[in-house]
Specification:
- The protein is α/β, with parallel strands linked by helices and 482 residues long.
- It has 15 helices and 11 strands.
- The strands form 2 sheets. It has a 7-stranded mixed β-sheet, sandwiched between helices.
């Protein structure tokens, strides 16, 4: 064994304790350090840095070592260098005022589960070593219940919403082949001929998925939305389906990115009485509305979808990367992703996970989700969802009352979409974001042609006090920009 490996193994308890101290320090400072550090963030104050082995070069500091070290320094030295060189540059994305994108944090139970995921290091894809995939099936069943889906939906863990949408649309592609008497999995996507994928306000990952699947971005046909909304107009969708040359795919939205608008899922599903289409619902974070009795009506009809995308590293607050794909047709899913090798289990009526996603290998992502669901249950996660919704509404009220800002949409769930009341150019909004970044992080967008900002609430730590801090930071930044 290499001497550094042997030494680290002998000192493993001590080194893991040092890792724990570093992790605890990072988590305990989430509330006080800059939400997004500036590019010139200095090294950790008070830390003694080793003298350089040779004179420091002139010019900009390099990012990381110029070359791979020939001789390793062991875990202890790696921990010190990471704390000095990299940790200060990382954002507080696990913290309560990182409101960019739609980013959850990591609950204490999910953190423990993720650490144990690495400890046990399971490649949970085969019945030849089944415990990991059995745990994944149990966790997927818990999630199915959490979102109000029926037993006809089978769930599989994937890396994120993009892969969930891709997997769901891959199953839809095979369904189209079944309708046309061909198998794209065997004969290629070209065997389908022209394909139409209809959607009102699709997430960008849908076009990406169509590119990956060989259907092409041009297959995506935008359907008009309701006036002033991002929700699809059911009558317009009805007309578009009537014009489709054959069976089609509809991508419905349960929570759009900009305004968390929901398609009328029941009305969309009812169109199957007149038209032949696969219904895929992108509920990446909107599915969590089902946890709140006051908002569950938004997800009515989710169970009628043929496939459903839900992203877990958003509102479930488990670590990146984690999502799930539910589908009624796991037989078609297995037809797409079947993997034949002597060392793998047979396909069978209950396919091993290796036959259900693009990955032959994946870490036991389900364990972090299992831990947080077991630790806090439906009631605990409902509390997170409802608190985040209340925080989003509170920020919306703060900004609406300030003449420097203008809301561009009602706060329907957990996203506040707003802009500057005066001259909302991308440059001025970027300046505002930068000026406020010590206290709050929001992301840019465009809504109906207007440059805007989004504040998305999905972190388990966020409280009304964080809303007040975020609002004050945005107000101060707005006053300071030209």
């Amino acid at each position: 064994m290499h001497p550094s490996l042997a030494d680290d193994l002998a000192r493993l308890p001590e080194l893991l304790a040092a890792t724990l101290r570093q992790a605890t320090q990072a988590l305990h400072t989430l509330d006080t350090r800059p939400v997004v550090p500036r590019p010139d963030t200095p090294a950790e104050p008070g830390r003694v840095e080793p003298a350089p082995a040779e004179p420091a070069p002139t010019g900009p500091a390099p990012v990381g070592p110029a070359r791979l070290p020939r001789h390793g320094a062991g875990l202890g030295q790696a921990l010190e260098e990471f704390a000095r060189d990299w940790a200060p540059r990382f954002s507080a994305s696990a913290g309560p005022r990182y409101l960019g994108f739609v980013t959850g944090g990591v609950t204490p139970a999910a953190l423990a589960g993720d650490w144990l995921t690495a400890v046990h290091d399971q490649n949970s894809n085969s019945a030849l070593d089944p415990a990991g995939q059995d745990l994944e099936r149990e966790t997927a069943a818990w999630l199915r219940e959490l979102f109000g889906l029926g037993p006809h939906h089978a769930g599989t863990f994937v890396s994120g919403a993009t892969m969930s949408n891709t997997t769901g649309l891959a199953v839809a592609r095979e369904w189209l082949g079944e309708r046309l008497g061909v198998s794209p999995a065997e004969h290629g996507a070209a065997a389908l001929g022209p394909v139409r994928v209809l959607s009102g306000a699709p997430h960008s990952s849908v076009a990406k998925a169509l590119s990956v699947l060989g259907l092409g971005r041009d297959a995506l046909v935008p359907v008009p939305t309701l006036p002033g909304r991002e929700a699809v107009d059911p009558a317009a969708l009805d007309r578009a389906l009537a014009e489709a040359p054959g069976p089609a795919v509809v991508v419905a939205n349960a929570g759009t990115v900009n305004t968390v608008d929901f398609d009328d899922l029941r009305a969309v599903a009812a169109l199957r009485e007149r038209h032949d289409f696969w219904l895929h619902t992108d509920a990446a974070f909107g599915a969590f509305a089902a946890l709140s009795p006051a908002h569950a009506h938004l997800t009515a009809g989710l169970d009628e979808a043929d496939s459903v995308c839900v992203d877990l590293h958003k509102w479930l607050n488990v670590p990146y990367d984690s999502a799930v794909l539910f589908t009624r047709r796991q037989d078609l899913q297995a037809r797409v992703f079947a993997n034949a090798a002597a060392y793998l289990g047979p396909l069978g009526p209950r396919p091993d996970l290796v036959h259900l996603t693009p990955e032959n290998s994946h870490r036991l992502r389900a364990l972090a989700a299992w831990f947080t669901l077991r630790a806090y249950g439906g009631a605990g996660h409902r509390e997170i969802v409802e608190r985040d919704i209340a925080c989003a509404r509170a920020l919306g009220e703060e900004l609406a009352a300030d003449p420097a800002f203008r809301l561009l949409a009602p706060v329907r769930l957990n996203v506040v979409c707003f802009t500057l009341a005066d001259t909302p150019t991308p440059e001025r909004l970027a300046a505002l974001r930068t000026a406020a970044a010590d206290e709050v992080f929001v992301t840019p967008t465009v809504l109906a042609g207007t440059p805007a900002l989004r504040a998305a609430f999905s972190n388990w730590r966020t409280t009304p006090a964080d809303v007040r801090r975020a609002a004050e930071a945005l107000r101060t930044a707005a006053r300071g920009i030209a």
